[in-house]
Amino acid sequence: MVVLTARLPRRGRGFWYSVAIDLLWPFVVLFVRMRMAGRSNIPREGAVLLASNHLSFVDPVTLTAFTLASGRVPRYLAKASLWKAPVIGWVMSSGRHIPVDRGSARAGRALDAARSSLDDGQCVIVYPEGTFSSDPDGWPMRGKNGVARLALASRTPVVPVAQWGTRELLRPGRFVPRPWTKVHVVAGAPVDLSDLYGLEPTRQVLDVATERIMAAITTLLVGVRELPHPGSR
Question: pLDDT digit string (tens) for 185-195?
Answer without folding.
Answer: 999 999 999 99
